[in-house]
Amino acid sequence: MEKEIVVIIGGPGSGKTSLINELAKRGYICYPEISRQVTLEARRQGIEQLFLEKPLLFSELLLEGRKKQHSQAQQETVPVVFLDRGIPDVLAYMHYIGDAYPAFFDEACKNHRYTKIFFLPPWEEIYTPDEERYENFEQAKLIADHLAETYTNYGYNLIEVPKETLDNRILFILEHLS
User: Fold this and answer.
1) Longest dimension (CA), the chain
2) Residue-range definition of the domain harbouring residue 87
3) Residue ranges of the NadR/Ttd14 AAA domain (predicted)?
4) Contacts (Cβ under 8 Å, ≥6 apart) of 90
5) In a structure prediction context, what are the per-residue pLDDT tens digits for the chain, which is 178 residues long?
6) What's the start-to-end Cα distance of the chain, in Å?
7) The total number of structural domains that make up the chain
8) What's the CATH number where 112 sits?
9) C-alpha span between 14 and 115 (Å, rounded)
10) Which residues fall within 8 angstroms of residue 142, CB to CB, at 6 or more apart?
């Protein structure tokens, strides 16, 4: 059986972290979203909003972190690994803010492939801003559009997860694995 490297994507506040946390509680290997770690490390170095102040540097750090996660996921000895966001997320966010990026960003997307992509659509009822989430719901919807377009452009078939209870969303995802 081929290992599945499964990515859960969606705009800010769509429930990705809750799903990842619940999958981890159920014993699955899950890799967390790394942008919060990058943001907190930048704050420790005195840069309040690295994504806003130095978007290319922020994106390069995310790209490297996500490439490392992809490599680590391949080394796992379990049949499925879940990731909170993937490499194309970096490009989707760059498209969202209108920034250009070097060709190696595109190469990373082509050279690091995932098995399945689960897309969480924008869901206003569960959206809540927090310390690291500066986008409003309208911006979150635009980001979700960029994510869907970017992953589709890299040849992925997005599996849209229904707006259901956390348990039902987990069941949906597990039923759609190979």
Assistant:
1) 47
2) 4-175
3) 6-169
4) 59, 62, 63, 66, 101, 105, 108
5) 578 999 999 998 899 999 999 999 999 999 999 987 888 888 888 877 777 778 788 889 999 999 999 999 999 999 999 999 999 999 999 999 888 889 999 999 999 999 999 999 999 888 787 666 667 889 889 999 999 999 999 999 999 999 999 999 999 999 999 7
6) 9
7) 1
8) 3.40.50.300
9) 21
10) 11, 96
